[in-house]
């Protein structure tokens, strides 16, 4: 048995050594040359240059697909919004001014309903070193705006039901600003200079709070894994040359605490991994497109009460798909 293990380890060492020699050879003088017409791909890029001062229009859609552990789909919701951006250089407000045109929710394949309270809402976005504002709110997105929301159909949304609406704006700015803008001290987009390069993002292993209003208590947190950015290459989006930057959160975890009556709590814990691509316009440095796929497995524990469901543990598997697009004013206003 020992001889078998020794032979196995020897073969493994030879394979690894061969791989290392191959990698060295590819990087050396004998490496394949880039075709003449594509020689620019071997150069150095600046993905963190100053963004062009122009008014922009974005549409973002996020689908939550719920799956049973038998593989059957059990439900789906779609959250979508349109937002106009007036960059700081034009807004005169010390930050980028965003104005929401509309926010909609659709259950399954049913008719979409809008959130009237968010139509016309404007806010100024300023990215801080800590990622929070003076109130401790993540990315400065105000919690109060997402309390007591109702749909155009008259349904009142609890804080828990409204959380994906709030999180849509967290997602939007995380990809458009946290990942796609330079980071003080390094570990950001500015460190990706050549195609194929990988960096650990400064937000790796961070623990942003996810509490919201009275429905999701303090102590609720999302723990990011070893977040990596990779400069995948150059592509076209709507005819514009874009740097394609991939991101991967690594193995992340989450905990949400929700009150249930007097001194009782519903606790949800689980794991998540999200990954996708950010397409950065090389001419304007604005994000033209973002994709995300996230896979979330959780278990919700109900408190001990007198009800039949008391003490139950409810497993859940959810997949999220997000698409953010920079669009024309005409498409935005349709």
Overview in brief:
This protein has helices at 2-27, 88-91, 159-178, 329-333; strands at 56-67, 73-86, 96-107, 113-114, 122-125, 198-200, 221-223, 228-237, 240-248, 252-259, 265-281, 287-301, 313-327. It is an alpha+beta fold and 334 residues long.
Protein topology:
Blueprint: H1 2-27, E1 56-67, E2 73-86, H2 88-91, E3 96-107, E4 113-114, E5 122-125, H3 159-178, E6 198-200, E7 221-223, E8 228-237, E9 240-248, E10 252-259, E11 265-281, E12 287-301, E13 313-327, H4 329-333
Assign an overall shape: globular
Label the structural class.
Answer: alpha+beta
How much helicity do the residues have? 10-25%
Tell me the strand percentage band. Answer: 35-45%
Indicate the mean pLDDT. Answer: 89
Number of helices: 4
Q: What separation lies between the terminal Cα atoms? A: 71 Å
Specify the biggest β-sheet.
Answer: 13 strands, antiparallel
Radius of gyration in whole Å, from Cα?
Answer: 23 Å
Low-pLDDT regions: 1-32
Number of strands: 13
SSE string, helices as H and strands as E: HEEHEEEHEEEEEEEEH
């Amino acid at each position: 048995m020992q001889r078998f293990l020794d032979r196995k380890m020897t073969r493994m060492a030879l394979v690894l050594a061969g791989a290392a020699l191959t990698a060295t050879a590819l990087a050396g003088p004998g490496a394949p040359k880039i075709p003449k017409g594509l020689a620019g791909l071997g150069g150095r890029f600046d993905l963190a240059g100053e963004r062009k001062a122009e008014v922009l229009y974005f549409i973002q859609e996020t689908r939550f697909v719920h799956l049973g552990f038998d593989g059957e789909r059990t439900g789906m919701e779609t959250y979508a919004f349109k937002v106009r951006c007036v960059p700081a250089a034009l807004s005169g407000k010390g930050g980028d001014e965003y104005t929401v045109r509309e926010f909609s929710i659709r259950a399954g394949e049913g008719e979409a309903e809008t959130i009237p309270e968010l139509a016309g809402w404007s806010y100024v976005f300023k990215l801080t070193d800590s990622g929070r504002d003076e109130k401790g709110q993540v990315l400065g997105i105000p919690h109060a705006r997402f309390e007591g929301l109702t749909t155009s159909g008259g349904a009142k949304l609890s804080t828990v039901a409204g959380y994906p609406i709030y999180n849509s704006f967290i997602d939007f700015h995380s990809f458009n600003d946290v990942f796609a803008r330079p980071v003080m001290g390094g570990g950001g987009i500015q460190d990706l200079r050549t195609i194929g390069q990988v960096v650990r993002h400064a937000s790796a292993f961070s623990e942003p709070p996810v509490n919201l209003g009275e429905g999701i208590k303090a102590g609720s947190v999302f723990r990011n894994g070893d977040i990596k950015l990779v400069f995948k290459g150059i592509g076209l989006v709507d005819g514009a040359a874009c740097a394609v930057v991939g991101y991967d959160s690594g193995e992340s975890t989450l905990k949400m605490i929700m009150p249930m009556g007097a001194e009782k709590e519903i606790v949800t814990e689980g794991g998540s991994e999200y990954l996708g691509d950010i397409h950065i316009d090389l001419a304007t440095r604005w994000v033209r497109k973002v994709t995300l796929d996230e896979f979330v497995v959780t278990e919700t524990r109900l408190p001990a009460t007198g009800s039949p469901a008391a003490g139950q543990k409810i497993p859940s598997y959810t997949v999220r798909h997000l698409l953010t697009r920079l669009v024309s004013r005409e498409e935005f206003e349709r």
